[in-house]
Design a protein that fits this description.
The chain is of the alpha/beta class. The protein folds into two domains: 211 residues, Spore Coat Polysaccharide Biosynthesis Protein SpsA, Chain A; 63 residues. It is 38% helix and 23% strand. It contains eight helices and twelve strands. The strands form two sheets. Strands 1, 2, 3, 4, 5, 6, 7, 11 and 12 form a nine-stranded mixed sheet that branches. Helix 1 packs parallel to helix 2, helix 6 runs parallel beside helix 8 and helix 7 packs antiparallel against helix 8.
């Protein structure tokens, strides 16, 4: 049987994280790596207690907790967890990434593994994500405007939302999975772009389900959210291109579209944060969540 390692990233979300980990018990998972990005001794203690309780259940997978000294962002935390597992164990056959605000449904991991077992041409597979009464499969990223939609648009490519992804060890043996220039948001879109540019396929197994709560508290005009979302679109203008001549067009498209978006959000949420974040996003600032934004997903 193939060996599968699940990785979940926590940021001040112990209650959600415990539900996520419990949903992996009884799945086709051998190892669970829990990574804490909170940089909080109290949060680390809460997570250690969760790991202890789950380890005492009947036939649990191997559980371990890794505590980062600072918030490395989603991609950075994932890359380091995989790298450490490679060093410690030689790597697992498959890696499952799951948001701490997501829960696997029965048989989900086994179904995802079977997809990769049956088709070597697929590099990345995800379940359909059920959230808020809607089922999400592929997402489309418009390279010209920096806009995300749930249907195909001009100049757009599909990608798999990063709340739950499964891939083979071979995908990360030569290079990290995520580009760490994306601290928060956009790393899943750029991963999809990179894989498809290399001629690799992505696939949504729509008969598998993950329940995804989503980061409701991060989308209300806070500077952290607005800065990192704007920055991911700016980075994509330079990274998701076929040739250098596309860059000026992509930058212009974002200046127009993202400016209109920022103005609308500033009015909607009665805050200048979106407008302030737009010019700031061109600078590599160390913007971290404000106090009170903690009890939410480590990623979305």
């Amino acid at each position: 049987m193939p060996r599968t390692c699940a990785i979940a990233i926590n940021y001040h979300g112990a209650r959600k994280t415990e539900k996520c980990l419990r949903s992996l018990m009884g799945q086709a998972v051998d190892t669970i790596l829990l990574v804490d990005n909170s940089a909080s001794p109290d949060e680390a203690l809460r997570l250690a207690e969760i790991v202890r309780r789950l380890s005492e259940e009947k036939n649990p997978p191997a559980l371990s907790l890794r505590v980062n000294e600072e918030n490395l962002g989603f991609g950075g935390a994932v890359n380091r967890a995989i790298g450490q597992d490679m060093l410690d164990t030689g790597g697992h056959d498959y890696y499952l990434l799951i948001n701490n605000d997501a829960q696997a449904t029965p048989g989900m991991v086994e179904r995802l593994v079977s997809v990769l077992e049956q088709d070597e041409g697929i590099a990345l597979v995800a379940p359909a994500a059920a959230a808020g009464g809607r089922v999400e499969t592929y997402v489309w990223y418009n390279r010209l405007l920096g806009a995300v939609s749930h249907r195909k648009t001009f100049a757009a490519f599909p990608y798999l939302p990063g709340c739950c992804l499964l891939f083979r060890k071979g995908l990360v043996e030569r290079e990290p999975l995520f580009d760490e220039a994306f601290f928060m948001y956009g790393e899943d879109a750029f991963l999809g772009w990179r894989l498809q540019r290399r001629g690799l396929r992505i696939f949504c197994a729509e008969d598998a389900r993950v329940l995804h709560e989503g980061g409701k508290s991060s989308a209300h005009g806070g500077f952290f959210y607005e800065y990192h979302l704007a920055r991911c679109h700016m980075l994509m203008a330079f990274k998701a291109r076929r040739h250098l001549l596309e860059t000026p067009l992509f930058v212009l498209g974002r200046v127009l579209f993202q400016t209109a978006r920022a103005a609308w959000r500033s009015i909607r949420y009665a805050t200048p944060a979106p407008v302030i974040a737009l010019p700031a996003c061109w600078l590599p600032l160390k913007v971290r969540p404000a106090k009170g934004e903690g009890e939410r997903s480590a990623r979305h």
